[in-house]
Amino acid sequence: MSDERPERWTQANVYPDMWIDPGDDPRNSDGPSPDGELATLQEYLADYRLTLRMKCDGLDAEQLARRSVPPSTMSLLGLLRHLAEVERDWRGWIGEPLPKLYGKGGDFDAVAADPGMVEAAYADLAREQAATDAALAEHPDLGERLGKDRIAVRELMVHRIEEYARHCGHADLLRECIDGRVGQ
């Protein structure tokens, strides 16, 4: 790992500690917040998913595959693959377990600076998100309990938000190490 540290940078003009001005942030809306608990949870999940994609925007395969600090194998590309894997796992909580996409530990350990791998990771993530969303759309009652462990839909939704939120924090630090872009 190089000792060179990138200078911190931002595209924001209004708040220099943010990486994009609030008026340009696609996660901000001028309208009222959603009505109801389910709609609120879905909006938070959508915003965290978008945040992850924004943290990866503009980076090439080498930058996306760049590891954090030893002994960690974490990278932005690894996070994309990991979240595809956990979306798939969550469907297993609802019904029958599905086989791993990348094998044991392959979401992080098998990452390479390969444009094809990057393209596949984005496609895998989009497909697995859509499949999990579709499976949960069949269960709009947040109190309904699903799967062999009888997990409540509400708990599963909150767990999904927590997983993305935690990894968006990792993505903030990974991105800043890559090119100095600050978090928000």
From TrEMBL:
Q: Which InterPro entries match?
A: DinB/YfiT-like (IPR034660), MST-like (IPR007061)
Region called Disordered, residue ranges: 1-36
**What name does the UniProt record give this protein?**
DinB family protein
Origin species, per record, is Streptodolium elevatio
